[in-house]
């Protein structure tokens, strides 16, 4: 009798746990998105191994009517923007970590073994390879003479564009623990501006590589190293006059090119700010989206309906903000008031049977370690919005 009661108690406990799990799943029901944004897929191609479950953001690059994109397996692909037709493919025979960037007729790709490769935009032919101090997980940036890249060990390295020879290298002190990520440096006429795991935004002389000024966006505070993380993982951005940057466990700030702080507001994030319609938009670390006035830093609106969905960086497209989540949805949000105006799911065809009376996402349950979310930054183009999924699909979305 005792064992029978014990089994009954165990069964009740198991059922309660199952019901709690179902309730937890149902708590993530998508908010209404029946607004004016009507997204359609123009074309969609698979590039191979996407970011997958590894925490990488393989951002593509657009030059006129051509898209350049990479996969983690080591392949660089040129695609016609309007049609999605492949123009050429280059296998670098090493895993790729940091996406692709371009300047004039050159592409720059960072490999897992700490190498930066320069390729021709015409056919992908290799021009040079240069060893870096460590691996780089963000895109490089370039001007007419040099290419600049930040590695995970806290260094910024400048290389000559024609040969790959090192011009200078600047190393900043690193904390005991940091978030594994860096941003792409912002290049101005005189400066290379980038963020560090110390919570500082640092401006380096573009010619000499020496610091010209720094601004603190986050102050380490807390008992544990986790609580003291203040990384500036996103890239600083500029409207041509003012520089905007943000830190995890820190602030979002507007800074002049002379290093003077114009305004600072609370805004903990892993991502970069987005600028549009006189506002600064930011995905916060709790997956809410905050809008700030570009000139004063005043908070305009806060979108909280997508919290907990593993959002990426917001991208301005038309009068909307687009943001991807870990389930493979792209949400379109009004830049004016933060309302959700539309949505589209970008996943491969269902791997399993359709479950009746279940959310659409149930049909694409993660299988064998696959990840169908969207982590890479999206790109707004003249033809529409470019989205690169964790499953390796590159898609062009237009809004009706």
UniProtKB/TrEMBL annotation:
Gene3D superfamilies: YVTN repeat-like/Quinoprotein amine dehydrogenase (2.130.10.10). Residues 1-23 form the signal peptide. It is found in: Cell outer membrane. The gene is bamB. Residues 73-301 form the Pyrrolo-quinoline quinone repeat domain. It comes from Thalassolituus maritimus. One of its GO terms (cellular component) is cell outer membrane. Keywords: Cell outer membrane, Lipoprotein, Membrane, Palmitate, Signal. InterPro entries: BamB (IPR017687), PQQ_b-propeller_rpt (IPR018391), PQQ_rpt_dom (IPR002372), Quinoprotein_ADH-like_sf (IPR011047), WD40/YVTN_repeat-like_dom_sf (IPR015943). GO terms for biological process: Gram-negative-bacterium-type cell outer membrane assembly; protein insertion into membrane. This is Outer membrane protein assembly factor BamB. NCBIfam families: assembly_YfgL. It is a lipid-anchor.
């Amino acid at each position: 009798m005792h064992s029978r009661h014990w089994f009954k108690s165990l069964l009740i406990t198991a059922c309660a746990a199952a019901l709690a799990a179902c309730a937890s799943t149902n708590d993530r029901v998508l908010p209404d998105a029946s607004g004016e944004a009507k997204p359609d897929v123009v074309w969609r191609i698979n590039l191979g191994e996407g970011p997958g479950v590894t925490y990488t953001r393989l951002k593509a690059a657009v030059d006129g009517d051509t898209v350049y994109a990479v996969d983690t397996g080591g392949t660089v692909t040129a695609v016609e923007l309007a049609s999605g037709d492949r123009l050429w493919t280059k296998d670098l025979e090493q895993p790729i970590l940091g996406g692709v960037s371009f300047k004039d007729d050159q592409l720059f790709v960072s490999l897992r073994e700490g190498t930066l490769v320069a390729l021709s935009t015409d056919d992908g032919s290799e021009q040079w390879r240069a060893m870096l101090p460590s691996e780089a997980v963000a895109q490089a940036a370039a001007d007419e003479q040099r290419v600049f890249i930040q590695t995970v060990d806290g260094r910024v390295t400048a290389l000559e564009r024609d040969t790959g020879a090192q011009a200078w290298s600047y190393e900043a002190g690193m904390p005991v623990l940091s978030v594994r990520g860096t941003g792409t440096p912002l290049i101005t006429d005189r400066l290379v501006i980038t963020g560090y795991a110390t919570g500082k935004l640092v401006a380096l002389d573009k010619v000499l590589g020496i610091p010209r000024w720094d601004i603190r966006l986050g102050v380490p505070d807390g008992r544990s190293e986790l609580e003291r993380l203040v990384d500036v993982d996103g890239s600083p951005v500029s409207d041509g006059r003012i520089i905007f940057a943000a830190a995890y466990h820190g602030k979002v700030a507007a800074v002049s090119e002379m290093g003077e702080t114009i305004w600072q507001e609370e805004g903990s994030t892993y991502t970069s700010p987005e600028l549009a319609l006189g506002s600064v938009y930011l995905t916060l670390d709790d997956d809410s989206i905050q809008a700030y006035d570009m000139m004063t830093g005043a908070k305009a609106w806060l979108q909280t309906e997508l919290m907990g969905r593993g959002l990426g960086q917001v991208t301005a497209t038309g009068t909307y903000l687009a943001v991807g989540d870990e389930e493979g949805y792209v949400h379109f949000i009004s830049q004016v008031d933060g309302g959700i105006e539309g949505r589209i799911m970008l996943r491969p065809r269902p791997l399993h049977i359709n479950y009746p009376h279940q959310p659409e996402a149930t049909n694409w349950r993660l299988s064998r370690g696959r990840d169908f979310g969207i982590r890479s930054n999206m790109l707004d183009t003249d033809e529409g919005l470019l989205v690169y999924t964790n499953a390796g699909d590159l898609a062009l979305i237009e809004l009706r």
